[in-house]
Amino acid sequence: MASAAGPLSRITRIAGPALLPAMAYGAYKGGAAGAIEAFFTGPGRTSRIMALVVVLVNWKSLPLAWTYRVFNGMVSHLLVRPCHTYTPDKLFQPVKTETHVTLLEVDYNIHKSNSTYFADLDVSRTHLVGHLLAQGCRALSNNASTKLVPDPSDPSRPAKGAFNIILGGVQCSFKKELKPYQRYEMWSRILSWDRKWMYIVTHYVEKNAVKPGSGPEDWEKKIHASAVSKYVFKVGRLTVHPAVLIEASGLLPERPGGWVNDESSVGKLSKTANGGANGHVELDAAESPAWDWKQIEDERKRGLEYAVHLASLDGLLNRFDPGEDGPLGTFGPG
Asked: Which SUPFAM superfamilies does the record match to this protein (predicted)?
């Protein structure tokens, strides 16, 4: 699979934040001409160079850096780069995002703070969806023309409103600490989907632990954390079935005999098709594509066995208990 981060992305990811001090200093001096030279040679250069080093090694934790990292992924995949064309056998394949632990992410235990994993997840998920599902995202963003999502009140018209991707929840399991400035990789892929949510699994993996062509290994020693996130897709106020986005991206094979929606399964093959009682249509081996609908559906169900545990947390709001006489105490600063 092609890398999700090209040379241009790598350059802008590092050079952009690194040049900000020089540009700011040049603007302060009254112009951009000679700004870089003045930055490295003018009075006070030692403190400026030290500040630049701090920015270079910690930039991902600086103000607005998270916004830059996320928008870099959205803009580069959805607006700048051409859409990739993948076949259905790539639907559950991962993308890799590389990063490192900054000093500002370290907690009092001298390792990466648990809370900072979630900011990294935002970036990794953006690259996955933007890269793998670019065709579908662009089609839904232009729903007025593509008419992928009809208006419920008048199916002959497209639904109105902007296309949005909304995070509904994250669950993360921490296995092994990440030390200051340690480099690591985030491997994200589609785990499953249901009538509303798309579930994405992300593994935080030791740098260079995955070798090209490597098979099953003792990942327990090389994975630092694993997380499951759920996304909902919207056009205006309407929820878009994840399968619509996936199919618009060219990643769903033909569904022999059609399929029906019910409360327990999405993409369930119709039992009226020429298949067995399980609803699957058996294809002749010579006619089967690289991945047929049965394989996609079987993999989706395997992933859903894990995803349902995150989905079940939605019911926790019914377990909220403010106490008989209110909280035992109110504290700050929060």
From this structure: Thioesterase/thiol ester dehydrase-isomerase
Helix (H, G, I), strand (E, B) or coil at 204: strand
Tell me the two tokens of residue 110.
């001298």
- Give the orientation angle of helix 134-141 with respect to helix 117-132, to 10 degrees: 80
Whole-angstrom distance, CA of residue 324 vs CA of residue 331:
19
**Residue ranges making up the domain that contains 155:** 55-259+289-312
Q: Is residue 96 part of a domain?
A: yes
Lowest mean pLDDT among 27-31, 34-38, 70-74, 121-125: 27-31
Count CA within 13 A, CB hemisphere, residue 205: 21
Task: List Cα–Cα distances, 234 to 25, 69, 75, 239, 322, in angstroms.
Answer: 43, 23, 19, 5, 33
pTM, two decimals, is 0.80
Say if CB 261 and CB 252 are below 8 A apart.
Answer: no
Domain contains 159: yes
Query: Are 266 and 260 within 8 A, CB to CB?
Result: no
Nearest to 248 by CA among 125, 161, 146, 165: 146
Judge contact between 150 and 258, C-beta under 8 A. Answer: no
What would you measure as the largest C-alpha separation in the chain, in angstroms?
Answer: 81
Angle at 277 between CA 273 and CA 278, to 5 degrees: 90
Task: Provide the number of structural domains found in the chain.
Answer: 1
119 lies in some domain: yes
Let me know if residue 246 belongs to a domain: yes
* Rounded distance between C-alpha atoms, residue 4 and residue 81, angstroms: 11
CATH number, position 245 = 3.10.129.10
CA distance readout (Å), 227 to 69, 131, 175? 19, 20, 11
